[in-house]
């Protein structure tokens, strides 16, 4: 079985409510899985590790997901209700074999 590892540098969730775009969460995923936005959404990481393999000279660390059991669960709170309103996710990923 081939496992795909994903290096995730950052992730942001954006919600659109009443035609207003609002940043709901921001995870730089350079050394922690904590939400760095003002909302501070609770996130629980499982099997996520950090490696010295960032994409630039300024960003030298990144989160590594094993492709099978690595997840970050984000609490639906603070106005963020996935599945009940429109939202967008932006991520910078580097897949590897």
Oligomeric form:
single chain
Q: Give average pLDDT, whole number.
A: 75
Q: What characterizes the major β-sheet?
A: 5 strands, antiparallel
Rg, rounded, reads: 14 Å
Bin the strand percentage.
over 45%
Shape: globular
What is the straight-line distance between the termini?
Answer: 11 Å
Number of strands: 7
**Helix-strand pattern:** EEEEEEE
- Which residues sit in consecutive blocks of at least 5 with pLDDT less than 50? 1-10
**Category by helix and strand content:** mainly beta
Helix percent reads under 10%
Separate helix tally: 0
What's the quick description here?
The chain is an all-beta fold and 97 residues long. Helix content is 0%, strand content 48%. The strands form two sheets. Strands 1, 2, 4, 5 and 7 form a five-stranded antiparallel sheet that branches. A two-stranded antiparallel ribbon has the order 3-6.
